[in-house]
Design a protein that fits this description.
This protein has 373 residues and is mainly beta. The chain contains four helices and 22 strands.
């Protein structure tokens, strides 16, 4: 019995230690239960919800807030008032727009776009919630609301009191039920003050296909620092050892990928089947210390031939031993993408391309650089 009691006490102590470590951030960032929000200024002022996927941060806002524009500025909802900029990626049905976000505001962008959502049970048990919004100074306001109608696509909410009135500039605000996101405020009826809320699960289901996700898929959210390529350090890539898809032509051969010629030469492969894998040997036939690679897309035309989702793996062995170090997205607006990760020792690097931006004839890059120390 003393041993059993001792084990229970030890387990309890370990749980308390783990909870303390998580709370203090010593065991890494926790996934957010509720997405980060932001004040967004574009064609109009409104609100945005921030979602994460593959090292990138995205803003979801009603399309009428963008008002036909292509650029927006953001202020995050915290005392630090982190700022960001965003470029429009796509407008969807249900008056939704998705923008790619950069800047300090992305540091707390951790709500995974691939997270599973189950709202029906929550909506059947919760009749009240809060409309949460961010002001231009980063302050957060909460308006108590009653859910007056539940549909398959939209919810209707009404102010719980006179101090909870909603208005036009709140479009994009998050409806929160308890500790869960339930919807995005899309419009306010000026006659009765009711809010029209797009269900959060419907909003996410609408934009997921753009990212190659189905409702059951999970997006991999890994934070990694983005750094520019420093000049004068050379390229450790010695030769392309193997590849899984043939070149489009002699002018687009695989060796173009590491010839250092930049946009002057381009590697293109037939996008017959994904993933496409390219394995590059590092110089000296020896293990090298690396902490980044650079993917260069300048010269690839049309831009729809650029890779979209990709993964970087490394191995310190001559065969096998692959370890993933980064997953991300290469955008058509990028001429290059510097991918930084924790320092590792590697003999080979693999680039695994999972998708491209839609051109049926080819997918490729102009250079792959492994900077030396």
């Amino acid at each position: 019995m003393p041993g059993v009691l001792m084990n229970k006490t030890a387990r309890g102590l370990r749980w308390r230690i783990c909870i303390t470590l998580f709370a203090s951030g010593l065991m890494g960032p926790l996934a957010q239960a509720v997405p980060q929000q932001a004040f967004i200024s574009a064609g109009e002022h409104g609100q945005a919800v921030l979602l994460s996927r593959l090292n990138e941060c995205y803003a979801v806002t009603p399309a009428h807030v963008i008002d036909g524009g292509f650029f927006a500025t953001l202020v995050g909802g915290s005392s630090a008032r982190p700022r960001g900029e965003a470029d429009l990626l796509q407008v969807f049905g249900y008056d939704l727009a998705v923008l790619r976000v950069t800047g300090a505001i992305t540091d707390d962008c951790r709500f995974d776009l691939g997270s599973s959502l189950a709202l029906d049970q929550l909506l059947s048990s919760e009749g009240r919630g809060q409309i949460v919004s961010v002001s231009s100074d980063g302050s957060i306001s909460r308006r108590n609301v009653r859910i007056s109608d539940v549909g398959l696509v939209y919810l209707r909410v009404s102010p719980a009191g006179s101090q909870d009135q909603m208005f036009k500039g709140l479009s994009g605000s998050l409806l929160v039920l308890g500790d869960d996101p339930a919807g995005i405020l899309m419009a306010v009826d000026p006659e009765n003050g009711e809010g029209k809320v797009l269900r959060f699960d419907r909003a996410v289901e609408t934009i997921r296909p753009f990212f190659g996700l189905t409702p059951g898929n999970s997006g991999l959210a890994i934070k990694a620092q983005k750094e520019p390529l420093e000049s004068g350090k050379g390229n450790l890539a010695a030769q392309v050892e193997s590849w899984s898809s043939p070149a489009l032509s002699a002018d687009h051969r695989m060796s173009n990928l590491i010839d250092g010629a930049g946009a002057a030469t381009v590697w293109l492969a037939r996008p017959d089947g994904f993933p496409i894998e390219i394995i590059v040997d590092l110089k000296g036939d020896a293990v090298q210390a690396i902490d980044r690679i650079v993917l260069v897309g300048e010269g690839v035309e049309p831009r729809e031939r650029l890779p979209r989702d990709f993964e970087v793996l490394v191995s310190s062995r001559k065969e096998g031993g692959w370890m993933p170090v980064f997953s991300g997205t290469f955008f058509t607006s990028d001429n290059s993408r510097s991918v930084a990760f924790a320092p590792v020792r590697a003999r080979r690097v693999m680039l695994r391309i999972y998708s491209h931006w839609g051109d049926a004839k080819g997918v490729g890059l102009s250079d792959l650089v492994v900077p030396g120390k």
